[in-house]
Amino acid sequence: MPPIDPPLSSPAEDPATSAGADPDTTAPEPQSPPPPVRLLLVDDEPGLRAAVKAYLEDEGFQVTTANDGEEGWTVAQELMPDVVITDVMMPRCDGYGLLKRLRADERLGGTPVIFLTAKGMTTDRIAGFQAGADDYIPKPFDPDELVARVRNVVRRQERLLAEAARFADADIGAMAKQITEIRSMLGTGGVKKATPDVKLDFTPREASVLQLVAEGMMNKEIARRLETSIRNVEKYVSRLFIKTGTASRTELVRYALEHGLVD
Fold first, then answer.
1. Quick one: residue 132, left, alpha or beta (phi over 0 = left, psi -120 to 50 = alpha)?
2. Fewest C-beta in 10 Å: which of 30, 129, 197, 214?
3. Which of these CATH numbers, 3.40.50.2300, 3.30.470.20, 3.40.718.10, 3.30.450.40, describes 38-166?
């Protein structure tokens, strides 16, 4: 017996139509894929650099390369990569020099750094970790292992950022109350601005954070304004508490206004 074709359903028999469902409202919203992880690969060997770049791109990463640590530092400031993979022995600026610059930079200080190097002795690995590297892969290496380690540091970084955001929002009610008090104090002239009568050793960034706190901004707003992380803002606010002997944002702003520390 020849196969029987299934009957064609008419538009009236379509389940969604017969149920009165609106296809435009019931269809799930298409979700855009997450942006690719941005890698900065720094190595002075052209052949290895090209091969590693091609392999990582095949695995879905977005890869930018640099010839040495000096160029890597310049590129990192523009790219703001998610992970830096760098050789150790390079001309002009080696891997340790690049790592030191990254860790000292406010925007790049938390960027995971993987050392990819021919110096694979235990003492070399220990030196790399002590310098602040997040991982250390000796050459020659298995490219699949490199991919696995890159993904591992990316996941670790995502967990750290999620945890930082959770803590940043944990006391949001109390902070919002303090912000309201600050704005009310400023709006009603509750504290008169004074000429500077104390001199505190604020760094330029601490002074900027103090000014923005006095303007009634929350940590997320300050981080956005200064192009830094919420964690860094929290660090600066804590330093301001210590230097001014205050314990809350309201006290900090009152102190700053009374002593002419903000505009």
1. left
2. 30
3. 3.40.50.2300
